[in-house]
């Protein structure tokens, strides 16, 4: 059974940093994409970032480019999202995802974590 367990969310002031982690288990993860989506209160879910398992390809939504960095530790089956220069509009529940395809809509993604809340105060 595939499990994705996120950690690292919390409350931070604008301009601060947080690092989210997602530990994956239950599959052989080669040739998969791992990613992060977020959903703010009253808003649609949106793609944040994704990475292929080798780490050779990374993908970001425009609003986080230059501020967020996605990376993997294959030995630990873990993906990270380093978030710097956080803004109040980054406040959301962040979800870890896993799928064979790069899916920026999220509609076809097979595996989701339960989410971790990030709150950025102004």
Helix segment count?
0
Name the helicity range.
under 10%
- What gap, in angstroms, lies between the N and C termini? 40 Å
Unreliable spans: none
The structural class is mainly beta
Q: Could you tell me the radius of gyration in angstroms? A: 13 Å
Number of strands: 11
Q: How much strand content do the residues show?
A: over 45%
- Element-by-element helix/strand order: EEEEEEEEEEE
Q: Strand count, sense and closure of the main sheet? A: 7 strands, mixed
Note the overall shape.
Answer: globular
Average pLDDT confidence is 95
Describe this entry's structure for a reader.
The chain is an all-beta fold. It is 0% helix and 51% strand. The protein contains no helices and 11 strands. The protein has strands at 3-7, 10-13, 18-25, 33-39, 46-52, 58-60, 68-73, 78-83, 92-99, 111-112, 116-121. The strands form 2 sheets. Strands 2, 4, 5, 6, 9, 10 and 11 form a 7-stranded mixed β-sheet that branches. A 4-stranded antiparallel β-sheet has the order 1-3-8-7, with no helix packed on it. Strand 4 and strand 5 form a beta hairpin. It is globular. The protein starts with a strand and ends with a strand. 30% of the residues are buried.
């Amino acid at each position: 059974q595939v499990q994705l367990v996120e950690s690292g969310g919390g409350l931070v002031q604008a301009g601060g940093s947080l690092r989210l982690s997602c530990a994956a288990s239950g599959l052989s993860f080669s040739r998969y994409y791992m990613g992060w989506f977020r959903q703010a209160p009253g808003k649609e879910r949106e793609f944040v970032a994704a990475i292929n398992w080798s780490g050779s390809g990374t993908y970001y939504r425009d609003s986080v480019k230059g501020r967020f960095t996605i990376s993997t530790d294959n030995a630990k089956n873990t993906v990270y999202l380093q978030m710097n220069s956080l803004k109040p509009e980054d406040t959301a529940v962040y979800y870890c995802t896993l799928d064979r395809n790069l899916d920026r809509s999220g509609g076809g993604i097979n595996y989701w974590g339960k989410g971790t809340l990030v709150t950025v105060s102004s």
